[in-house]
Batch of 4 targets.
Target 1
Amino acid sequence: MDLADKTYGGTHFTLNSIVSAVNKSNTHLKAVYLDACVMNMCEYWYGMKDIADYLMLSTFNVPGDGGSYDVLVNALASQDIESALATHCKYTVQKWDKDAAEGLHDMSAIRTSDIEAFGKAVKNFTDVLDDTYANGSAEAKEYIDIECLQQGRLLPGELRKAEK
């Protein structure tokens, strides 16, 4: 079975190829750890939620050789899995921050059983935000625009102007 993504010259895995490989093995993983893949986004959480109990993912490019595998193995040998993943995340991000001259570094440990509840909470939030922007006061819309601007996001008001 070819797991590589052809759009990258056959050198990269895709979400679908990872999930397909695990599903074809008839295995349920305790954890999936992707330390240098820029895959910490909710689309990947949802895509992998059924193949593992935990996901440990980084959002940004990471320096050097990736995670501290010796720390992870030692933590797994001496702690419950959630504590071990938390220990590894904290140690690894601190190491990246120390070793790299610049850049943003993070890593999340996610319990996949919580992903559906997270998705519902995000949907509720975005529904309220959308309703507030569509039907709220001018002051509320201005506040949303300012918050979006400060976060470097496209402003709903700018989008509406562009649509005209």
Note: The two ends are 49 Å apart (CA to CA).
Target 2
Amino acid sequence: MKKKLILVFILAASFLQAQEVSESDVRRIVEKDFSAIPQNLLARLVPYNDKNNRAGLMDAQTRKIVVKAKYFDLDFFKPELKGNYNGIYLFQYNPATKKADIHLDSESQPEQDSGNTQADRKNKAAQISGFSLTEDKKIKNYDMQYSSFSEEPFLFQGRYYGIAVREQKYGIVGEDGKPLTGFDFTYDRLEFNRYSPAPECWFKFLKEDGTSGFINLNGEMKFVNEFKTTYSPKTSTSIYCANASQEFAYNGYEILYSDQGAVGVLDLEHMKWIVKSTAESDVIEINYASDRKIENIKKDSRDLRLYFLMYDKKRETKYYMDQNLTAYRL
């Protein structure tokens, strides 16, 4: 409750201040702050926060302050830079042109439904016992006994399998409709870990009795009851990030949650924890820096420098930590 009141106070004060600052004023301030930074330095700059949770930029190698803390929700250069000047004006700075686009912040819009209904996904005329694939190996049609089907199948022992839902239970079936042993629609939820290497194939699961974790096709389980499969991550970050734009999963790393909040960041390829929340600090988000614009996170993974946004509970400030667990803070 205390954190929420602090955030409300900061945003209210920022709004009053914004009445005296015009869009052209903000553009001039942003362009002055960032235009003097050398191009070869941009990708190694890391956002930091002062005791008032205002953000600036720090050189990750020298730990020197490059831009003083006067912003909110400052991102990494990707290669353009996004941020919030005073809680009211959002900006996007282009280092190539040294120009900034400025616009007023607006209330976040509700997420739009993808529009993929059962009618869109099923071909009722198809007489199949399992599912059929498109040329690019997406699930196109499936048996009418299933209420839904995962769009992307996975390959196991030379055959394609998919996650299906029947009578509100999750299972794994082949193209012929036969379920895999141990996955015959006994789970309340199954999610394929697409980063797990074959032939293990790990799945995030939830059982009827509330047991959750990861399980592979051999029946081996990991991280049992260490996180909650159905937990929604967006509800846990609102008191920290007024205009959060970062993602919760990048390039094989994902933040997992319990009822108490973020448990930590899991390496989905190697199935191990990278960093966990502690009594002193919480994991908030995953972010990245890059020398160029990233069009596809999976394909361009080698060009990413991953960072984890943490929250210091005692200081009530945020800071970034890299993949080597080096912290960037004052």
Note: Helices lie at 2-18, 23-35, 118-121.
Target 3
Amino acid sequence: MAGNAANSPPLAALATASYGAILGSVFPVMTVMTIADVSGGLSVPIDSAALVNTMQNVGSVVGILAAPAFAAGIGRGRTMALAGGGFVLASVACACAPSLPWMLVARFAHGAFGGVLPLMFMLLVMTSLKPGSGRFEGMALFATSTSLFFGIAALLGGFLVDQLGWRSLFWVQAIAALPYTIAALSVLRTERGDPLAFRKADWADHALLSVGIGAILFALSEGERHFWSEAWWVPGLILGGAICVSFAVAGMARAARPLLMLSVFRRPTFSLAIVLSLVFRSRLALRDLHRAAVSRAAPEPAAGGVRETADGHAALDGARARRGVSRR
């Protein structure tokens, strides 16, 4: 009986992690959909406000790459609690942001902690459930929790902005993440992790990889708004990021305790998941760019249309007046 209990999957931890995966998947999309309202609330142009989403994506890269080392070093339950608590505090910082620079720093932390939430669910599924004994069902639940609720993101974001203002977008995230953090503190409490493995992790290559991927992601997100090669720093960031990633990969191949096992990329299912994730994030980025372009272009044609209509009515009234005078 004791052996069965020890080998049984941690259902409470899996349920908590699935809730976190929903939070970490829906809320970033909700902010993307309502970036124009954030722009107006901070009194900055839409191009500048788009950095709010870019910094969240860059932060998520840092958090996702570091999460496995934290899970091995301090335990999966503590890593979940740390991510949840950080997400709450970062959400509060975003809600209280008085200016764009404050918001950018807060959103970087928001992305770093928020990106860990879905990852921890997948990590629990892969480490707690065995193939043929719940892993397939766990992966299906992961896919459901990170995709099924996207449809409510726009509806929820629009409702919050209309009824409570743009800051409520982040207050709601802080409130919603509190139950996750409390529940995470009570699961997997006997799992202590290996502090030695945490201290000896390949943090140097992690920093290099995070900088490289973050630079490339920043350039890809902002390049469209700066006409790619016309801004020297866009190709510069892409080139510099590629160099950093190359050195990081070479370092991880030689490291005794690499932060990321490169052999995992040889698995077709894992590689396909990465490709699909990149496609989805690219679609979100393109949607954000389209919304920004529409927001910039809409006032001018609208104003021009009003002026043209007014001029047309004035000309018609003048012609009618002249016709009336000639008849007299």
Note: The chain has 15 helices and no strands.
Target 4
Amino acid sequence: MRLRIDLSDYLQLKTLLLAAMLILMVTSVALQFVALQAAFILYCFGLFVLYNKEIDYLGTDDKNYLALALVATALILPINVFRTPTSALHFSMVLATLAGALVAAKSPRAYAAASLLALLLSQGAVLWFLRKAGLDNFPLEDMIEGTSSNGITSYIVCLQINYCVANLHARGRAAPLTSAITFFICVVGYGRGSILAGTAIMLISLLFAFRPLPRIYAIAATAVLALGSAFLIAENYQIIYNFATNNTKLGTGLYDEPRAAMIEEYWNRLSGLNILFGASFDNTLIDRFFNGNPHNSYIRGHHFLGLFYILLMGLMALRPLFARISLTEKAFHMAMLATLLLRASTEPILFPTPFDVMYFSMFLLFGRPSRAPLAKKRAALPSPKRSYA
């Protein structure tokens, strides 16, 4: 397989503007500055104003679904604001990230290029830090003050999944190389959730990388990869086990007692109107010991914006099933989105945060024409239209 790079995709003004949006997104979350998040909101609205004439591509079903999600959330917003005043700010984040996504999904190739630029810059920053700090003693804990190693690896995982989905949809290519780098960063970051997510992303990308080959070769390559991996793991099991036990949280098992306790406590508060509008964090473990951080995107979304919001946002992950793409592509996208949503169950990376711009973008991309067949029959297909780039 040859690596084909179309530099024109990366030199477009829109690509650079979208890359700046994604970089500002990551920076605002990582540094946790309110001013940066406000700047991100304004930037997304600014992009929407600049390119609002180009968002006429939405299908009727997607328009209706988004309208339903916004209206259902807005109807109960006044009560949510009365109970939790910051809900108004979080709703503005929903509007801003949707506005940015509407611009991004209009140009899938430009968005895929922008996603790669943002991913490489983020990976490069982490690798540069590791080059200076070394790999011992959990170095990512000290990379950004106030941001844990788990947070940093979660951001990289989200950027990687976003790029994998955007790149496959726009260019028909998997992203095994960047996925391998993400896996390495996740292992160094030692968190269980990120290591499992990084492993899933890398395996999915590697399997799908063989897709352009004739079926018999793809099957043979997959079999060789699987057998080779099994052999290496079997031969080095003790080394892998010792490393996982001593250098990651996998050694303590997959059960996380503090997170489970927070979920159970919040669940027990759900009764009556709390189910519809969201429960309070007051005097909970989340409030007393975790500074209001539930370490769960679904609890976070339900708390701020209620049941309709979190249900409708979660159901967006089913969009690939109804897209006009092959079964193989549907399987790829569903696997990637499942990985993202599982990661969101242990970190507040979505619903609503600046990272929602990527979640909305992926949802909207599935309503756009897929260019994945290019990887199989490049010569038999016409060149992409100018408006698509």
Note: The first helix runs from residue 7 to 11.
